[in-house]
Known about the structure:
Layout lengths: L2 E11 L5 E12 L9 E3 L27 E5 L27 H14 L5 E7 L1 H12 L6 E5 L7 H16 L13 H11 L6 H5 L11 H14 L3 H12 L12 H6 L4 E4 L10 H8 L6 E2 L16 H16 L1
Amino acid sequence: MAELGVFELGDVSLQTGATLKSAQITYATHGKLNAAGDNAIVFPTHYTGRHDNNEWLIAEGMALDPERYFVIVPNMFGNGLSTSPSRAQTDQQGPRFPNVTIADNVRCQHRLVSSLGVRKIALAVGYSMGGLQAYEWACAYPDMVERLAPICGAARVSPHNYVMLAGLKAALMASSDFEGGRYAAPPQQGLAAFARIYAGWFPSQAFYREGLFKAFGFDSVEGFLQGFAEPYFGAWDANDLLAKIWTWQHADISAERHGGDLKAALGAIRAKTIALPCETDLYFRPEDNEAEVAHIPGASCRPIPSIWGHLAGGGNNPPDSDFINRTLAELLGA
Length: 334
């Protein structure tokens, strides 16, 4: 069973120069830290994920076995559990929430992990935005992170990925019920538009062509949109979604300490690294990961052979999940 905690950070100075007031990280842990403090795994959350969404990869007998490892799952800022537009100090709620970077998230997570007595990170792993954070962990703390496995993630957001996110943001903010982010009730019109755009990106073209939406219990594309995509995204606070889009769009491990030189930032990573893109992911392309690992000493790229697109990395399809688990077990054994 996971143990839940809340880590109080106080006021946090952000990369932009702003201050996040009375910041908190809500987190989960699985297993126990050993006496040496070196069996920890950090597994940050993804865009529409919270700590329980990572549990598919944490179980006895699996690579992330809580009988062997101390798995720490910090909720990223903006996800509604850690400090977010929906649960910030009054003067920072909603559209007044300050811009938070991936580096800000990881710097605060490092404070959390250190407070727990961790001395070494056996593995930094994450899916999607969790992969962005895992990359940042390995770059920012190269002497601490021993292994790295970004799953459907990247070291820097690509221009194409940025444009996709800009479209989502525009659709939500342009809806009449968004009211500049000061809505009294959830902007369902904007959220529905957001969901329909997102639904064209998180699987692949082949996912729809082969009718794999039926795995979610729907007989048609329209049924999938109305019955899955719209309720899924409609359950999120709109300002939380927008805050994390800003974080995602500005992801870049080289920005804070390498002057924008991505090759130098990647070259500073000392962790044994296997990148796990999906062959058909529409936003984190395998060729981007191939280009990244070329600059990480000894790193390799292991594409997930799947037509599930970005969904392949999140525990949605058992063969994909098995591929990820086996690869992580190999990496942890190295």
